[in-house]
Specification:
single chain; 328 residues; alpha/beta; 13 strands; disordered N terminus; 11 helices; 6-stranded mixed sheet; binds 3'-deoxy-guanosine-5'-triphosphate; binds magnesium ion
Length: 328
């Protein structure tokens, strides 16, 4: 052990140098009741640029995984341990949703016990290493497991990112119409179940075409983003705004009746009046909109399509009545 420590202290120096320039290629939990065996694994992994955590029994291992599942890329797990065996540890880990996909490499004590390997694989281990451990085989397998783990994590991240992108309008940063369709379904079901009203406000900018015609499409775009900012500023936490179409927007207001929905729309009108849009030629214009409101009463469970068409009809009435107004 003293020799091992002398060697290790040299390695540590090298290791530190490596770690300064290169981030670890993975983080691995090493579980073994035998300190010397754990030591060997930890040292071999550290040498190949892998960060390690240690647990000396099954309980510790499970606790470690429970605390920080997202920090572990792979687990090297001794089968034969007092207390929880390696198999039991696998069973526990597989029940932790955030950890169920962490690749587990079993360390089996004897080459003869095929049963152990079979059982371990059945429990969900992806690979195994036999004692006495070959450090070359160990590091090769652990590196592969870490790579796989990280690739999976990247993929999950990319998917979530893509999902988010699919619901956001790139110009205004508001949710898009597609997301509105799914949120209004949810709101409709929720309002029915919890006996709570909700309302939608359909808004269409007035004479927007003339802005495009006078100042160009880019300025039109900028007016839309400014409008979206004003919309955001008048919403409560549980209210959501969507860009429904070109210059049409819709608000989804939880726990809200038609009267309070009109209050929100009026707040937006005031905001726009207080801050007219300044064009690049110095002229200003108050951006106005027409709005149609439709509310689903408590427990009524309005069909979402019906609600949208009622709001649309109200919006049409607001337009025909002269624009810059709110209709029910
Ligand atoms: P109304 O008061 O009747 O609503 O008049 P309007 O001019 O706003 O209505 P109309 O529907 O005739 O025109 C809407 C215009 O909005 C037409 C279209 O060119 C413009 N538009 C739609 N989407 C965008 C966009 O993303 N950017 C810009 N700059 N213009 C857009
Ligand atoms: Mg053991
Ligand atoms: Mg329009
Ligand atoms: Mg319009």
């Amino acid at each position: 052990r003293a020799d091992a420590e002398r060697i290790l202290s040299n390695d540590d120096v090298n290791q530190k140098r490596v770690q300064l320039s290169v981030p670890p290629i993975g983080a691995v939990l090493v579980v073994d009741d035998d300190e010397a065996a754990r030591w060997l694994v930890v040292r071999a992994l550290a040498r190949s640029g892998i960060q390690t955590f240690e647990a000396s029994n099954g309980r510790e291992a499970v606790e470690h995984v429970l605390e920080r599942p997202e920090l572990i890329d792979a687990i090297v797990l001794d089968v034969m341990m007092p207390g929880l065996t390696g198999f039991e540890v696998i069973r526990h880990i597989k029940r932790i949703p955030a950890a169920a996909n962490i690749p587990i490499i079993l360390v089996t004590a004897s080459a003869t016990e095929e049963d152990d390997i079979v059982r371990g694989v059945e429990y969900g281990a992806i690979d195994y290493i036999m004692k006495p451990i070959s450090t070359a085989v160990l590091t090769a397998k652990v590196r592969a497991a870490c790579e796989r783990s990280r690739a999976e994590r990247r993929l999950r991240y990319d998917l979530r990112f893509a999902e988010l992108h699919a619901m956001i309008d790139p110009l205004t940063g508001l949710f898009n119409r597609r997301h509105f369709e799914s949120r209004i379904r949810e709101a409709s079901a929720y309002s029915k179940r919890h006996d709570q009203p909700f309302a939608i406000v359909m808004m269409d900018l007035d004479h927007f075409k003339s802005i495009n015609d006078t100042y160009g499409h880019e300025t039109g775009d900028h007016v839309l983003t400014q409008f979206a900012g004003a919309v955001r500023s008048v919403l409560r936490g549980e209210d959501v705004a969507f860009r429904y179409g070109g210059e049409e927007f819709v608000l989804l207001l939880r726990a809200c009746d038609a009267q309070r929905a009109a209050d929100v729309a009026e707040r937006l009108q005031k905001k726009l009046r207080a801050r007219p849009y300044v064009f690049r030629d110095g002229s200003t214009r108050t951006i106005t909109f027409s709005a149609g409101i439709a509310a689903a009463l408590s427990g009524e469970g309005y069909g979402h399509a019906e609600l949208v068409s009622r709001a649309d009809a109200a919006l049409y009435r607001a337009k025909s009545a002269g624009r810059d107004r709110i209709a029910y």
